[in-house]
Amino acid sequence: LFTTATAQENQTFFTGIFPEISLTKKISDVNKLNFKIENQRVLFDNRDKENPQFTHYRTDLMMYFDHSIRPGVSMALGIFHRFQENENSNRIIQQFAVLQRMRNLRINHRIRTDQTFTRNDDLELRMRYRISGEIPLQGKIVDPKEFYLVISEELIFSYKGGDFEIENRVALALGKLYNSREKLEWGVDYRTDGFIQDGFRTRLWGKISYFYNF
Question: pTM here?
Answer without folding.
Answer: 0.91
